[in-house]
Amino acid sequence: MSDLEFEYIDLVFENCNGVKIPAAYVECLSLINLRKHKFINFAGQFIEIEDCKDFSVQLKNEALLLKTNWENEGMTCDKSNESFEDHVKKHKDITHVFIKVDKDKEFYIGIPWESDEYNSLNQLQENKFEKDSFTIRCVQK
Q1: What does the pLDDT look like over 8-25, one tens digit per residue?
Q2: Could you state, in order of their start, the residue ranges of all structural domains in the chain?
Q3: Burial grade of 56 (CB within 10 A; 0-12, 13-18, 19 or more)
Q4: pLDDT digits (tens, 9 = 90+) for 35-71
Q5: How far is Cα 53 from Cα 32, in angstroms, rounded to an integer?
């Protein structure tokens, strides 16, 4: 690892695709009001998940050139196989962020989500594009 204190983040989309973003492309990542939830599901498994009430990530524009996980796997079965740039400019559907700190430390955190029953877009997500970077933000109301 370089001087950076984490390896990469993965932004996960509603359709389970995502994009792995190396630390060098991440200008800022903010997760505010983290909450832990613990429960036992119907299969008797103990589950612990985290989410936040305020999510923001600012990425260098070079990150738009990254391939999505499905592109890297060669999945070409449907329109879901679009590039990260196409996806983030057309959709607002990030559900989770996975943060890989090192081989022993990682976090999988849900981000604020609100949608109606007729679509799978996050009504809380705002994508803002600037000259050298872009920001994705979701804030729970």
Answers
A1: 999 999 988 999 999 999
A2: 8-139
A3: middle
A4: 999 989 899 999 888 999 999 999 999 999 999 988 8
A5: 6
CA distance 95 to 9: 13
Beta strands at 54-60 and 94-102: parallel, antiparallel or unpaired: unpaired
Question: What does the pLDDT read at residue 83?
Answer: 85
| Cα separations in angstroms, 141 against 53, 89, 92, 118 | 8, 23, 17, 20
Whole-model pTM? Answer: 0.87
CA atoms within 13 A on the CB side of 21: 26
- Residue 89 to residue 110: CA distance in whole angstroms: 21
CB-based contacts of 103, cutoff 8 Å, min separation 6: none
Residue indicated by tokens 């990542």: 29
Q: Which tokens belong to 133?
A: 């970077």
Distances (CA, A) of 30 to 16, 46, 83, 86, 97: 22, 28, 24, 24, 11
